[in-house]
């Protein structure tokens, strides 16, 4: 069962193609992370699903209807990147006011508790911090028990604690059976929340798969090991030549960590603290979105890996 579909959807803004022939299905009960650099087309995609814009070409359906019809949006909850709140209303009053528009809203006290807003219930929204406003905005997106929630960068500007409160609330809401789509620049956020990851860049869907499958696309393994001085001469695998060193600790990126470990054992080197890990979502993301990268690449990511922000 799908809650929303895009079929061959293109959206242009004058000379800019924000989305280019995108076909995507948002399934019932999924928690989908939408990941992409600035300007990739994520917000445009959400605005089409929410009926705020119309596609230049292709078809968008929300609960089987054109999302620009109000009836299609009756069970949709959204949080735009920036939210205006009436500054003189108190937090609980705003929640009550919005809840009043729905037939079966979540109880205000329960919602405030979920988002750790209970201590702020009587505070005027004009006196909230940016992060508190953000939490309230996401709470308002779900007050009507929507079947689909679109959260565009919900944790921008939140500190670590507030981000975790929000993640817990989103997970709890998703567990009640709703579909949730979260866009984010934070790979950590997508890793923490999403079951399915859609990677978008330059208006194209580069990948759409489970988190584990996306990470597995990057075949690189990172091997860390502490070696007694001078022992690398006994090792024969060519990857050792490209190791990065911190004291006697070596880090090697390889497509075949088993061969590297066999090499250590065969040479009889007294190694310590051996660690082998697979790629992270950040490495998979960079491998997919770096200029010239082909979709579905399995080339090992280089080391050290720059952060997303450095890259972009
Ligand atoms: N109203 C508009 N007028 C002109 N160009 C637009 C408009 N909205 C979006 N664009 C362009 O479309 C492209 C996709 O933008 P979009 O906001 O969808 O990306 P995004 O992935 O959400 O980016 P960010 O992560 O920075 O929010 C960008 O090049 C953007 O400049």
From TrEMBL:
Keywords: Antibiotic resistance, ATP-binding, Nucleotide-binding, Transport
Residues in ABC transporter domain copies: 4-227
Main location class: membrane
Membrane topology recorded in Swiss-Prot or TrEMBL: Peripheral membrane protein
A GO cellular component annotation in the UniProt record: plasma membrane
Entries under InterPro entries matching the protein: AAA+_ATPase, ABC_transporter-like_ATP-bd, ABC_transporter-like_CS, ABC_transporter_ATP-binding, P-loop_NTPase
Descriptive protein name: ABC-2 type transport system ATP-binding protein
Species, as recorded: Serinibacter salmoneus
